[in-house]
Amino acid sequence: MSEIFVTRMRSEAPDVIAPDGSEVRILAHTVRGSMAEFSLPAGQVSIAVAHHTVEEVWFFTQGQGQMWRKMNEAETVIDIRPGLSISIPVGAHFQFRNTGTGVLRAIGTTMPPWPGMDEAYAVLGKW
Fold it and tell me: Exposed, middle or buried by CB within 10 Å (0-12, 13-18, 19+), for 65?
């Protein structure tokens, strides 16, 4: 990374489609973490995935839905809405779905920074 100060405006169109199928708009990053906005259209369900080496923290900014997370014997499904934040530990299985009528959006921080599409792998999901 050659930049000292990273400044990035959120793009109108997705920069990439995540391995879980959600739209991703890449935001600022540092040597220790990266940030992105994830969105899922109304009625859509993400592909269930887990990460090899990164952990994430998400903050939901728009919409309604549900998030499933599973790690070893611990498993939970929670209702998600604006203002809610969650953690996704390394290796946790997770899947989310949009149960509302508008777009579901979350800002996520990935630590260390997202290494590439091979980071996520598909797992058996809830939905």
Answer: buried
Please give the model's pTM, rounded to 2 decimal places.
0.93
Looking at the DSSP bridge assignments, the partners of residue 55 are 111
Q: Per-block average pLDDT, block size 10, for the chain (127 residues)?
A: 83 96 96 97 98 98 98 97 98 98 98 95 97
Domain spanning 16-122: CATH 2.40.50.100? no
DSSP state, 46?
Answer: P
DSSP for 50-115 reads EESS-EEEEEEEE--EEEEEEETTEEEEEEE-TT-EEEE-TT-EEEEEE-SSS-EEEEEEEES---
Q: Cα–chain-centroid distance for residue 12?
A: 18
- The structural domains of the chain, with segments of one domain joined by +, span 16-122
